[in-house]
């Protein structure tokens, strides 16, 4: 059995684990990120790799490494080009890791959403010619598209669902991300309750208790999400649409509401799209697994 260390890099934590060829993950390690310090962040990544090696009792020459990095990456050059939440602009992460772990067989990088999508493809069991779209909703909102085991990348920026203009309010155009990501829901709640401490978690809690204002907020949010999904349905008609990200994986009971709202948009010929929607089976480990599979394949 071959093994890889999958690394999922985020603004709040760096997570890593040992991934096998079947997509199983063990020896998971998580450490807080150091997002404002370029070298400090790299040191955290190295510590996670070192800890997984120690826990698995494997040597560097016995594993390869895959990393999922936010934002724009140059996969061929091994460079983290730009991120909103890290101080890694044009950071040569692969070259630096080769210096730190010279015995390591192979080191690869990709965008973090793309890496998580690899795990979903591995799990979904689709036919080669079928299409999977993975949508992540958390502090941001984005998607990735896979078919035949590889991505539809366009010129390199495909999948930026969050950038699509969605609606106009008070003379301002709001994108999908500005309408449907976690911070957008929080802002709606703060305004509605006149309370600057309101979070999406609190809104969902009140929604489950049947509070009318929370119900109004969540239904408006789910309408925005469903409209974004309908864009994907109309353009791609994929066999699977999988939701990831903390907003959805921590609140799977919201999926029926989104399906209901989607049903208001679709035409009869698209009715199969309702059943194509699902929640990721990997609430915390998809990015690790996908990054590991990338290195192994």
Automatic annotation (TrEMBL):
Claim: Transferase is one of the keywords in the record: yes
Any one GO molecular-function label of the UniProt entry: kinase activity
UniProt key word Oxidoreductase: no
Entry keyword set: Kinase, Transferase
InterPro entries from the UniProt entry: ATPase_NBD, ROK
Family according to the record: Belongs to the ROK (NagC/XylR) family.
Protein name (database record): Glucokinase
Organism: Enterococcus saigonensis
């Amino acid at each position: 059995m071959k093994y890889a260390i999958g690394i999922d890099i985020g603004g709040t934590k760096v997570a890593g684990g040992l991934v096998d060829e079947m997509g199983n993950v063990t020896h998971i390690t998580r450490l807080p990120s150091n997002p404002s310090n370029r070298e400090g962040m790299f040191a955290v990544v190295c510590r996670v790799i070192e800890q997984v090696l120690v826990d698995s009792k494997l040597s560097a020459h016995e594993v390869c490494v895959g990393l999922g990095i936010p934002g724009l990456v140059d996969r061929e050059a091994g460079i983290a080009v730009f991120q909103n939440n890290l101080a890694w602009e044009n950071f040569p992460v692969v070259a630096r890791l080769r210096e730190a772990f010279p015995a390591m067989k192979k080191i690869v990088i990709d965008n973090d959403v793309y890496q998580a999508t690899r795990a979903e493809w591995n799990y979904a069991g689709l036919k080669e010619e079928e299409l999977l779209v993975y949508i992540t909703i958390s502090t941001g909102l984005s998607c990735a598209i896979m078919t035949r085991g590889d991505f539809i990348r366009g010129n390199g920026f495909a999948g930026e669902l969050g950038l699509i203009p969605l609606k106009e309010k008070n003379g301002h155009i709001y994108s999908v991300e500005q309408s449907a990501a976690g911070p957008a829901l929080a802002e709606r709640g703060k305004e509605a309750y006149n309370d600057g401490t309101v979070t999406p978690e609190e809104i969902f809690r009140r929604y489950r208790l049947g509070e009318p204002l929370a119900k109004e907020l969540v239904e408006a949010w789910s309408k925005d999400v469903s409209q974004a999904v309908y864009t994907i349905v109309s353009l791609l008609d994929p066999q699977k649409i999988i939701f990831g990200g903390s907003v959805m994986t921590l609140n799977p009971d919201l999926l029926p509401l989104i399906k209901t709202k989607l049903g208001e948009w679709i035409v009869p010929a698209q009715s199969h799209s309702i059943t194509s929607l699902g929640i990721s089976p990997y609430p915390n480990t998809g990015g690790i697994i996908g990054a590991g599979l990338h290195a192994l394949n």
